[in-house]
Amino acid sequence: MKKMLFVLLAFLSFSLSALAAVNLNTATQAELEGLNGIGPAKAKAIIDYRQKNGGFKSVDELESVKGIGPAILKKVRNDVSVTGKTTAVVPAAAPAAKVTKPAPTTVTTPAAVPAKAATDTKAKTK
C-alpha cells in the first residue's frame, strides 16, 4: 500500500511539473527568465521578436531569436509552448525592506580643559 501511494505521488508530481509551461506568445519577461538558460537579455530578445513578427507559430521558431541556438532550444523545449495559458509560477519579488531612521545619538564631549591648566602643563614639560 505504501509503495502504491509513493508511486502515485511521484507520478502526480511529475505530471504537475509537465503542466508548468510558458507560452512564448503571452509570457512576461519574468516568466521567460524563469526558463533554464534564459536570462534578462534573451527574454527581452524573445519579447522583441514576437512583437516584430506577430508571435511564434511553433516552438522551433524560437531558434530564430538572436542568442538562442539549438542548445538553448533543447533545454527549454519541454517547458514552452505557443498555445494555451502560461502556468509557470514566477516567484514574487521580495517585499521592499522598510527603511527606518536610526535613533538619534547623543554625543558627549569631555569638559574643556581650562586654558591656565594647559599652559601649566607646557611649562612643566620644558
Short description:
This protein is mainly alpha-helical and 126 residues long. It has five helices and two strands.
Topology:
Elements: H1 2-19, E1 22-23, H2 29-33, H3 40-53, H4 70-76, E2 80-81, H5 115-125
Parallel strand pairs: 1-2
Key phrases:
126 residues; mainly alpha; two-stranded parallel sheet; 5 helices; 3% strand; elongated
Structure, explained:
The chain is mainly alpha-helical and 126 residues long. The chain has helices at residues 2-19, 29-33, 40-53, 70-76, 115-125, and strands at residues 22-23, 80-81. It is built from five helices and two strands, in the order H-E-H-H-H-E-H. Strands 1-2 form a two-stranded parallel ribbon. It is elongated. 11% of the residues are buried. The model is unreliable at 8-18 (pLDDT under 50).
Gap between N and C termini: 98 Å
Shape: elongated
Strand content: under 5%
Low-pLDDT ranges:
8-18
Class based on secondary structure composition and strand pairing = mainly alpha
